[in-house]
């Protein structure tokens, strides 16, 4: 899986192929920041804005949709996508001892099931 990821998904060809989607989301990001500054909002939560940008790039690549800022359900979906990315390749003792996978010692399967159900609600 890691070989396929490095040879196909992270290749320069696919990087150039997905560039318009990243550029489109960057344009939305610039417009959002400009609107926040022109509305006299002095503090912009940079963590929230970058998470919004990265989440929308992921959603645009996977689902060909983008979310609107501030909608609770879509923020939950973006959180679920980041949770899936965090736990899908995480280390577990069951990687070395497959017979322990039925016990879910680390709780990763339960976390992934919950995140997958949340991300899969609207699709």
TrEMBL record:
GO terms for molecular function: heme binding; iron ion binding; monooxygenase activity; oxidoreductase activity, acting on paired donors, with incorporation or reduction of molecular oxygen. It comes from the Eukaryota. Signal peptide: none annotated. SUPFAM superfamilies: Cytochrome P450. InterPro entries: Cyt_P450_sf. PANTHER family: CYTOCHROME P450, CYTOCHROME P450 FAMILY 1. This is Cytochrome P450. It comes from Solanum tuberosum (Potato).
